[in-house]
Amino acid sequence: MEAVPGRARVYVACVALAALFCLRPLTTLHTPWWAVGLLAVLYAGGELITRRGVAGTCYPVLLAGAFLLPPPAATLVAVPGALLSYVGQRPAGLRRIWRAAQLALAVWAAARAHWALGGRDAVVAPHFPYALLPAGAAVLVFCLVLTALDGGVLVLAERVPVRRAWRGLFARSLAAVAVHGLAGLMMAVLWRSPYGPVAALLVLLPMWVSWWVFAQYHRERAAHRATIRALVQAVDIKDGYTRGHSERVGQASMMIARELGMDDDRVETLRFAGILHDVGKLGVPTRLLRKDGPLTPEERRVIELHPEYGHEMVRGIAFLGEARAAVLHHHERLDGSGYPYGLVGAQIPESARVVAVADAFDAMTSTRAYRRARPVPVALRELERCAGAQFDPRMVGALVRVVRRWGWGRTVTADDVRGAGPAPEPADDVKGAVPAPEAADDHAPRALRESP
């Protein structure tokens, strides 16, 4: 069982007690219990279907309950389904209790807001657009409660800094919840109409179709990630000294892309590019990747083929998009001294210029068996020094800004991967005949020689 901090367990217990308090007046209400039961069964059925990977969270049913029922009764609609919901991580029981309590509080608050603004009368005798006002307020309250509670979990369970825990949560969830709210309002209006509950249930059919399509999309994305993960694990097994390097380059590439204002799809593509940039090492003999000592010119030429090997490996993977160009060209340099084609300036694809900066930064800030990691400020200054000749100044500036703003995660030591053993000598690009500031390195700026 995964450890959950004690303070997070206390937080969950407090939220659960608050949810129970919201249910307290149930015994004094004159409520159509058949309606409560039907909505609860519908929501639980949606959650059970979700467990089979077919649909999504059935918020329209919860919000329809908030629009149709008194707050305590609406709260009860969420509980059985949430306790049956799919949980992919341990401890499953605690997570289900958290889910049930969180949704119960959100539905209760939404129902209170809806009823306080006269929403019950608006549903019985709908007068648009007035009926939208209490429903919109209920959706906002529902979303705010979920956001507030989720942020608390991030702080207490995941130890996310308070200043970052709630950032973007509300904005990301509002659009989806608003669509569910409209569907819930349609259900409530039809439920109260002469057509009755059966007509209201028809609203769920197009929603479930859209959820199924969305689930298909997520399954496809999961397959993409599994493909990438398998390739990266193969590289890590073959070249133990760079284990973890690919993931960190992907993270740094993503940070650069976001700082430059790229859209989410492109940010994800550049993350893939960073993760896969060294996949071509699968085509390089293992003895060269693990050689203790300098490389001969012939051996260096073999290693410098890895971008082309990598491009051949990923060329047929359509979803990678421009990430494929980054795999091929991430060792090109603005001044034309890179490889494999010696491209100059804007001839180098933008994705490759992003990955080149991320690659060099991680190479400098990671500890290897033959040298310690350089401090992040030193690495950033070196990138700035080489901007314009080796690296694109825009990419360097973006990385410098975002790292100085948010910091950089811990470095990974090669010794953590391969265990004890003799430290290898730097390769020929580190200690060869060419002076270090002028030599041609694969990863780091010219002043910081690094093995390919």
Automatic annotation (TrEMBL):
Enzyme class, spelled out: hydrolase
Region of interest (Disordered), ranges: 414-452
Superkingdom of origin: Bacteria
Record InterPro entries: Cyclic_di-GMP/3'3'-cGAMP_PDE, HD/PDEase_dom, HD_domain, HD_GYP_dom
Positions with biased composition (Basic and acidic residues): 440-452
Domain (HD-GYP) ranges: 220-415
Entry keyword annotation includes Membrane: yes
MF terms in GO: hydrolase activity
Listed transmembrane segments: 6-26, 33-50, 62-85, 135-157, 169-191, 197-215
Pfam families assigned: HD_5
Keywords: Hydrolase, Membrane, Transmembrane, Transmembrane helix
Official protein name in the record: HD-GYP domain-containing protein
Species, as recorded: Streptomyces flavalbus
